[in-house]
Prior knowledge:
Elements: E1 6-13, H1 16-25, E2 32-39, E3 58-64, H2 75-92, E4 98-101, E5 105-108, E6 111-122, E7 127-136, H3 153-157, H4 163-182, H5 186-195, E8 204-208, E9 211-220, E10 226-230, E11 235-238, E12 244-245
Parallel strand pairs: 1-2
Antiparallel strand pairs: 2-3, 3-7, 4-5, 5-6, 6-7, 8-9, 8-12, 9-10, 10-11
Helix pairs in contact: 2-4, 2-5
Amino acid sequence: MSAVFQVEWHKRVSSTNDVCQHYATKGAAEGIVVAADFQEQGRGQRGNTWESQEGQNLTFSVLLRPTFLPVTEQFYISKAISLAVSDWLIAYVPNKPVKIKWPNDMYIGDSKVCGILIENSFSSQYMESSVVGVGINLNQVSFPDDLPNPTSLLLETGTRVDPRKALAELVNCIDGRYLQLTEGYRENIDNDYFNALYRKNQLCMYYSNGEEFYATIIGVQPTGELVLRTAEGAIRTFAFKEVTFVI
Length: 247
């Protein structure tokens, strides 16, 4: 069954994930979408902050309750959400490569346009809640110097995107991929996710534990680990934060 989404906009919040987490702990039903013109303490992966100019981009979070999903399969939330964002981006840049940089950063070409932060909760073998935070660069054209490769839809297309219009479209895309997950179409999600991976089937440089090495992505385990084949033919598996791409 499809989720019923309810959108609320804020001028500014600490972070949209914080607001959604508050709803989750209060027992709110899934489908709440919290969006903000500005996050005072926006968070990214690896404990990073999410830098976003006020009113220029789209930052929002969604509360899901995937109680049908075993904890061991929680990576499917990451797959479904990144595919939903990919579905949406492709409509805006149909002639440019839209890829998912493992586990769930969104790239146009070799530049990052979107980050996703997922915070899951559970107390049994099944999921209780999933707070999905999404930050997409829509109309920002200048970025901090310490960001290595940012881009935005305005930079890619020359056209401004209205954040509220974008959110409505994205919620529809999330609804479609989440419905695919709730109805058990795991194989479709697996195939679409693997086919969308950034640098798939390319021999590229990676960095792990002080070592740089060349490898090719050959798979992603059900629990989310990245599987690489090194240039020497060895198969190596890495959890999140254990390996980085050398851009």
